[in-house]
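Standup notes
- HV: blocked on the assembly model, inputs below
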Amino acid sequence: MAIHRLLYRSDMHLAGTAAGIRQQVAEIVRISEARNAADGLTGALLHTRGVFIQVLEGPLPAVEATFERICCDLRHRRVELIELVEAEERVFGEWLMGQISADQTIERLVSCLPTGEDQIPEAVSAQATIQLMRTLLVSAPTQAASSRQMLDTS
Ligand SMILES: Cc1cc2nc3c(=O)[nH]c(=O)nc-3n(C[C@H](O)[C@H](O)[C@H](O)COP(=O)(O)O)c2cc1C
């Protein structure tokens, strides 16, 4: 069965110390994992420099319903849909919601990602972002371990 994959970015709207913010993001991921398991969704959430970038993938109705809830969530602002495409298979099939936390390496990598200003097609930029997120999850297995869970690949 075909699945859909959605990519968006938003401005984080969380108050508190760095540790407090880490805790709040961990709570978002905990709730997301439980909901996504029930909805057949997988994906990844990257947060760095006050920005969230998230991929959601699964059946279209579940992707849309979840994105609608996410858009209403006051823990972030200026939610911008980057891409919603049909896909042959999941990129994040092993993660109910793989969490990628800010660190300097990731910040450097994210700042290297092509942006709209570079005048490259949006699809290329979206693909580069998604591949980078997957690479970061695979290369940080301990951090991602709690989120790693096999779903069937439909
Ligand atoms: C950055 C961010 C990412 C989120 N990702 C998900 C997600 O992947 N799945 C999900 O069900 N909820 C996610 N949420 C939480 C939803 O916005 C919402 O709070 C949650 O689904 C519970 O909704 P409900 O209280 O209407 O049941 C996310 C929230 C934020 C701020």
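- HV (later): unblocked. The beta strands are 3-12, 42-48, 51-58, 76-87, 98-100. The radius of gyration is 14 Å.
- Next: hand off to the docking folks.
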